[in-house]
Amino acid sequence: MFVRGPAESQMFLLSILLPLLHPLGGVLGAKTCVPRPSCSECIQSPGCAWCSAKGFLQAGEPSERRCDAKEALTSRGCKEPYPPETDETLLMKDKELSASDDIIQLRPQQIDFQLRVGVPQTFKVSFKRAEGYPIDLYYLMDLSFSMGDDLDMIKKLSQDMVSTLQSFTKKLRIGFGSFVDKVALPYVSEMKKKRRDPSPHRGTSCQPAFSFQNLLNLTTDTAAFENKVIGQMISANLDSPESGFDAIMQAAVCKEVIGWDDGTKILVYTSDDTFHMAGDGRLAGLREPPDGNCHLSPSGLYDGTRFDYPSIGQLARVLTANNIQLIFAVTKNISAAYEELSKMIPQSVVGVLESDSSNVVQLIKNAYNSLSSSVVLEHHGAPQGLEVAYQAHCTSPSPGPPGLRPWSQRAECKDIKINQQVDFYVQLNMSRCLEQTEFHLSVQGISEQLKVVVRMKCECDCGPVEEASPSCSGHGTLHCGTCSCDPGFLGQACDCQQSEDHVSLDEKCRHGGSSQLCSGHGSCECGKCACQRSFSGQFCECDDSNCAKSNQQLCGGNGKCVCGKCNCSGAYGGEACDCSTHTDRCQTAGRPCSGSGECLCNRCVCKGGFDGDHCSHIPNNCTKYEKCVTCLSKHKKEEVAEACGVPCEGAVLSHKKTLRDAYCSFQSFLYDVTLTPQGIVHLRYAEMPSSIDKTWVIIGSSVSGILFIGLLIIVISRLLLELSYRREYQSFVASQQQTNWKETRNPLFKGATTTVMNPLHMDDE
């Protein structure tokens, strides 16, 4: 049932309708129309429209000319190109977002429109998470022996857990289930005593092991949940991994047994160890994969000895299909493994439990807030050939219709609060014609869905069919502007009769067995080609605009292009009629082109070694005749005429005594080269004037200069030294003359002779 809301609802409808009626060509790029011969083919070509007006085509124009861009058709006089803008109708079921008793979080609820191949359409979807939305929470607990202290803590905290959940919503239903492992070797002991009581310690009693057991269906009776938790006993198994995947699978697929409703569905998984996964069951001889069905017994037990463990992919598909959000509450030592697992399961989070699960209440609260703050819009059931892309506008209010922002395959907004509206723009694009189809859009974790019905626009509705139409010469049926001729008649207007030899008229318009009519450059009218534009010939095989050009003119402006070749007029020839037969531009005072070239198309084409308009210039003439000068230096004047003919390239040699105006020099010669009007090269040469060898002059001058300077330095230094000596001597003499010597005896002086008298000698005397 389609519902029209109040004024606000109509405004929302308009905001969705506008993007639909104005597809964003800038997003996927403007589509260039590729013309097609029929209306149905034309509207399946992106960017094309069809003109069905009578008399729209000129004589000889093919039906493809009716198919073009809408603007092009309008500019050519088509008043109503098909399909019209107003043809894309939109029907919706659109109720306002509401947080009252009839909670509506997703808007609109249904949309129905037409879609053309290659023409994207866009519409808006709004979501606002309502406060107090119903919650179904199923608590799934590992009851293996190592979880004994955790079970004791859960028994104490069950009331707090219920109170915390009721703070989110008053519409709470809660259930309880547990798991251990498959009752088969090597997971659980097969000894009878151990099967009755698998406890690994004496003095401790355990209940028998099981794969999964539903202990309490989802219920509003919170006291029943608390009592059921309190009444549980621990169990045990042999290996470390548990059968948690079996428990998740059965809890998800047993919807009627568990009692899942349309509210927010949350599955809390608690464990202190890892998990068995697909392939582990082969250790017990279990090779058959799970079939995805519910296998709970009337007492709520899952035996688990028929199937292997589920794979991660199976769990992800089952949880997504049933819109169940998963919270892994696990201990720190195994959290890394569950973090990796969570990446592969949509709408799942991981929380780290204390060793005794004392923080389980806070963990569930944080995990719920994390899940509810993330909004992910996704689609289900879209057929192949229908592309779905998204733009997320997470801010509030929405910035309006999308512009040139990129489209993505995923629409997600994070850190969204309760009662905060987010908008998503959804773009649909059809790559091929499909049957009428429908698919759904939904937000992960929310049961509400938007139903999208897509009707394909692949056939034309151009109005009534006109039989025996005058536009078809009375011999055909007119539909969408084109004629379907009666038997025996052919042609665009059915004005051609079938030939008696039963040869198709189209065959008469094909050249050499070609598949194209009139070489693709015209239309076949009653077996004859009506050529378009500049094409001619029996089969329009000649292109009269594809000839050589000169000076940017076809055939140089001196001829006519006929079937790809120039027919030159007057005194012109050549491929592009750019070659004149006159020779006036080649004439010089002597021979044409100075005798050093050939006159072609009234222009001189010079021989090698000559250039210029009249071939009168010798480029690099000094360098060119250096070999000739080298030959002149090796032979006597009388021998050069015979010996130097080849290196001098036949030049007329003229020896001069002096050449003051020569501009070339090489080795010991001065020379110049000139070209006469008759094309004769004259080379005048003369020996350079003899000169003194400056090398020895320079060396002698340098040595003499060095010696002279050296001697001069020695003389000057000796004179300076002599002057210094003289000044010192004169100073010495002056000081001597000023000295006054007095002749007094020094009291300290003693003579050098001492006389000693010998007394004995004196007595002898």
TrEMBL record:
Question: Which ranges carry the PSI domain?
Answer: 32-79
Q: Which Gene3D superfamilies match?
A: Cytochrome c1, transmembrane anchor, C-terminal, Laminin, ligand-binding face of the semaphorins, domain 2, ntegrin, alpha v. Chain A, domain 3, von Willebrand factor, type A domain
Pfam families found in the cross-reference section: EGF_integrin, I-EGF_1, Integrin_b_cyt, Integrin_beta, PSI_integrin
State which residue ranges cross the membrane.
696-721
* UniProt keyword GTP-binding present: no
List residues of the Integrin beta subunit VWA domain: 38-460
Identify its membrane topology class.
Single-pass type I membrane protein
GO biological processes:
cell adhesion mediated by integrin; cell-cell adhesion; cell-matrix adhesion; integrin-mediated signaling pathway; leukocyte migration
Domain Integrin beta subunit cytoplasmic intervals: 718-764
A GO CC annotation given for this chain: cell surface
The entry's localization annotation reads:
Cell membrane
Q: Which UniProt keywords apply?
A: Calcium, Cell adhesion, Cell membrane, Disulfide bond, EGF-like domain, Glycoprotein, Integrin, Magnesium, Membrane, Metal-binding, Repeat, Signal, Transmembrane, Transmembrane helix
In which family does this protein belong, per the annotation? Belongs to the integrin beta chain family.
Stored PANTHER family: INTEGRIN BETA SUBUNIT, INTEGRIN BETA-7
Name of the protein: Integrin beta
Q: Organism source for this protein? A: Gadus morhua
Taxonomic lineage per UniProt? Eukaryota, Metazoa, Chordata, Craniata, Vertebrata
